[in-house]
Amino acid sequence: MAHARGLPERAVTIALATAIQESKLRNLTYGDRDSIGLFQQRPSQGWGSPAQIRDPVYASGRFFDALVKVPDYVALPVTVVAQRVQHSGYPEAYAQHEDMATTLADVLTGREGPALSCTVSGTDPVPSDTGGSGAAGVVSEAGGGGGVTAAVRREFGDVPTALPVTGGGSVSYPIPTDQVSTGWSLALWLVCHATELNATSVTFNGRRWSSTASNQGWTHTTPDPGQTGTLAVALS
Q1: CA–CA separation, 193 vs 197, rounded Å?
Q2: What is the pTM of this model?
Q3: I want to staple 105 with a disulfide (CB 3.0 to 4.6 A). Which of 12, 130, 135, 217 is the partner?
């Protein structure tokens, strides 16, 4: 979502510190009064309907909508900015999560490269009760490569743009040389959602993650000269 809006890494750090404090990064169905979701946003305070707030993409978008209205938010302390968005009864609580949020932001924005991996523990089918709000919901509606591109577009906007899908077996994204961190951010997101997206491997920048050897993390691979700068996703 931050990529789609062209927001700096500092915005991601603030959002993560806020969500860690509010929900420990869990999409909660309960909270103080009518607060729900990652940011404990309240329908009665105009944040959206309960269903909308429990959609992480929507909830993050609403948080960023409010964040960018805070003057000079990039230079202000995390706790000050978070409080101006959240109006919490415990305004100092956000500060304790800044170090963890900064580390997570470094990884999730792709600045640290292949610093995150996921292990596939089973072959459970894609859950059907998603309400269309998550990656699995988008894939179930669009299917195959089109489903992956729709899910990525929902999270990342038009950065980057997928190459034309020639079949249901793969999707490729050209990554400009000055946007390697964006490529890694997308690659890590794809790995974390591999089960929902039916992705069997993700290859980028000389590294490959495979669902059949996910316990090995990102392994080195010899880049195909014709695929330099391309992020490739193989689908089942």
Answers
A1: 6
A2: 0.86
A3: 12
